[in-house]
Design goal:
single chain; 710 residues; mainly alpha; 25 helices; globular; electron transport; Cyt_c_oxidase_monohaem-su/FixO; transmembrane; copper
Length: 710
């Protein structure tokens, strides 16, 4: 008897090549910008003296370039190669593939233009303004439609484990992006978040933590389950472990966002939930690491000679380290030491450089010879790249841990007399400068290794011949016949739509339980009657503060620790942030917290501090913002801002738009007079006047609180 007839088809390697080249190109750009950012932390003059390349502006450019350009393109290259081969079917629609490719590159280009210009929402990993957010959603849906279409036209009955992770990543990122990006536009390049204060913080870190989870983790776990067994020529260690790993990971991860907000004004119950689920996450995370490393059983001799496996082993190990450190950092006693320090930066880069970077390098070294039908040009160069990268990670991460402990211990230390041992924040900054220099050296080593990869890829391509369409054949998908006693999960794997719906339910539960009560139950954010909306000039100053990325170095959240209340003032209350769109609590402190800075210094102090920070704080590593004294602010959008914020619930009186400009100039004239009395001449429309107005407002409402209000 003859078997089923075979159908002829081919795999599109051209789209994989384009995504691969984009991965390499944007990777170099992102790493180079990161190196410049690292240098600015000990040499602020490296901003070249203009507003477009300051730390606050190009730090989000670096994070977006590395996460969405380098890692994002790597994910798509890996999926467009592996998914068709796992399903024995070409991608469903070539036009969608190319729309996805060019749409994604356009998004990256728009980010590279808008972020240095200060066009930003200020939300971590979600800084892009609303028109770009819409484009991201459209391109992402096109990518997902192409995946679902391929699943529906597949020739392979069961979905392999890698595809489970691809699907969960697509669904979750779509949900996260849409809900976190909800905003009301003021103009084509300006919007205000639909959420305010505490709610905005919770939604942002529900997104921010799970962007790390479902963009930097789950897609790469899918890639690991495909490329590591291929490179090692060994089957995955345990199918059942992969099932437990997948479902427990996607269910638990979505709850963990609040661990970024411990000891803040977030309701205690939400913080507790974040801690509980973060600690539980170590089990499925390490289940994935174990499944990856044990897949190499019987192949460890190859690791000594194969640079692809070298990169993969360190990548999976770095994943294990980062996913141990994450739950540990979510413990409140550890978080009290680590949060707002460089420990968080080091933790993120163990995952970024080790897990994402190294696995991307391994995948590219494996893919290029396959698609060009040749051998890797130089194993020695690849091995050199491996060691440069590994040493680079060590030089990057270890100094940041030393920096974090130094800063935390100094800031919390008291003398025998009960006073702060180091009352001036700048004392801690001076101590950690050598650590920043070593960190930049580590980044330089890592970047040097990436340049070796570029040369190796070019030479590999030159010595081979690219196969644009790779032919294959397989029988058509036969109608399913129910097998007696079939394992339940194997049955799910035959139903891609049902499987996707189950994954969607799993990821929605945690978000719904944490976010909806925080928004709807008013007791979660006790109101303070003395807290009033920002005046027009303060609003303009706040938007300027956001535009310059000041939140990248300064927090606005004083936690209820004695060391912080002694240094900064009364701890922060939830009700103080009800008009903050977006919230500006910050993630790290390269400078002191600013939540109680209002009224602490005269207007002239702020002026001199912005013109030359070292004049007010000797040893400061903050760059000068001297252009703010001459740059003129355009206040023409102010009426639209007032109207938009009123639509979002801010109690500006009806018709206040007509009065706002006059009120703005009354307050501006007052600041100008104060500065003139100190011998400083500025015009009321200058940027520095608006910024001073905002800084002088910070934290002053709480001083007016009466005993009858919380």
């Amino acid at each position: 008897m003859s078997g089923p007839s075979l159908e002829q088809f081919s795999y599109d390697n051209k789209i994989v090549k384009y995504f691969g080249v984009a991965t390499i190109a944007w990777g170099l750009v992102g790493m180079l910008v990161g190196l410049i950012v690292a240098i600015q932390l000990f040499l602020p003059e490296a901003n070249f003296g203009n507003p477009y390349t300051t730390f606050g502006r190009i730090r989000p450019l670096h994070t977006n370039a590395v996460i969405f350009a380098f890692v994002g393109n790597a994910i798509f290259a890996g999926i467009y190669y592996s998914m068709p081969r796992l399903l024995k079917a070409p991608m469903w629609n070539k036009n969608l593939s190319w729309f996805h490719f060019w749409g994604w590159q356009l998004i990256i280009l728009l980010a590279a233009i808008t972020l240095p210009l200060g066009i930003t929402t200020s939300k971590e990993y979600a800084e892009l303004e609303w028109p770009i957010d819409i484009l991201i959603a459209v391109v992402w849906v096109a990518f997902g439609a192409n995946m679902i279409g391929t699943l529906l036209t597949r020739r392979e009955k069961h979905m392999y484990v890698a595809i489970w992770f691809y699907l969960a990543s697509f669904v979750t990122v779509a949900v996260l992006h849409i809900f976190n990006s909800l905003a009301l536009p003021v103009s084509f390049l300006k919007s205000y978040s639909a959420y305010a204060g505490v709610q905005d913080a919770l939604v942002q870190w529900w997104y921010g933590h799970n962007a790390v989870a479902f963009f930097l983790t789950t897609p790469f776990l899918g890639l690991m389950y495909y490329y590591l067994p291929k490179a090692a020529n060994r089957p995955v260690y345990s199918y059942k472990l992969s099932i437990v790993h997948f479902w427990s990971l996607i269910f638990l991860y979505i709850w963990a966002g609040p661990h970024h907000l411990l000891y803040t004004a977030l309701p205690e119950w939400a913080q507790v939930l974040g801690v509980i689920f973060s600690v539980m996450l170590i089990a499925p995370s390490w289940g994935g690491m174990v499944n990856g490393l044990l897949t190499l059983r019987g192949a460890w001799d190859k690791v000594r000679v194969d640079p692809v496996l070298k990169f993969m082993v360190v990548a999976v190990t770095a994943y294990g380290m980062a996913t141990f450190e994450g739950p540990m950092l979510s413990l409140k006693n550890v978080n009290a030491i680590a949060h707002y320090t460089d420990w968080i930066v080091g933790h993120v880069h163990i995952g970024g450089l080790g897990w994402n970077g190294f696995f991307t390098f391994a995948m590219l070294y494996w893919l290029w010879p396959k698609m060009w039908r040749t051998n890797l040009y130089s194993t020695k160069l690849a091995t050199t790249h491996f060691w440069l990268g590994t040493i680079g990670i060590i030089f990057y991460a270890l100094p940041l841990y030393v920096s974090a402990l130094t800063q935390s211990l100094m800031l919390k230390e008291f003398t025998e007399a009960g006073r702060l041992a180091y009352p001036n924040f700048i004392e801690t900054v001076i101590q950690i400068v050598p650590m920043y220099i070593l960190r930049a050296l580590g980044g330089l080593l890592y970047l040097t290794g990436a340049f070796l990869l570029v040369y190796n890829m070019i030479m590999t391509a030159k010595q081979g011949k690219f196969v644009a369409e790779e032919a294959d054949e397989a029988p058509a998908l036969a109608p399913h016949v129910e097998e007696k006693g079939e394992f339940w999960h194997r049955a799910w794997e035959r139903k891609p739509v049902f499987f996707t719906l189950l994954a969607t339910v799993a990821i929605l539960i945690g978000g719904i339980i944490e976010i909806i009560p925080t928004i709807l139950v008013k007791s979660n954010v006790p109101t303070i009657t003395s807290v009033q909306p920002y005046t027009p000039l303060e609003l303009q100053g706040r938007d300027l503060y956001i535009s310059h990325g000041c939140v990248g170095c300064h927090s606005q959240m004083i936690r209820p620790f004695r060391s912080e209340t002694e240094r900064y003032g009364e701890y922060s209350k939830a009700g103080e942030y009800v008009y903050d769109r977006p919230f500006l609590w910050g993630s790290k402190r390269s400078g002191p917290d600013l939540h109680r800075v209002g009224g602490k210094y005269p207007d002239s102090w702020h002026y001199h501090h912005m013109m030359d920070p070292t004049s007010m704080s000797p040893g400061s590593l903050m760059p000068a913002y001297d252009w703010m004294s001459t740059n003129i602010m355009d206040h023409s959008s102010l009426p639209d801002k007032i109207s938009t914020l009123r639509s979002l619930g801010v109690p500006y009186p009806e018709g206040y738009e007509a009065q706002a400009q006059a009120d703005l100039y009354v307050q501006a004239d007052g600041i100008v007079k104060n500065l003139k009395s100190a011998g400083i001449e500025v015009v009321p429309d200058s940027e520095i006047v608006a910024l001073i107005a905002y800084l002088q407002r910070l934290g002053t409402d709480i001083k007016k609180t009466t005993a009858s209000n919380p």
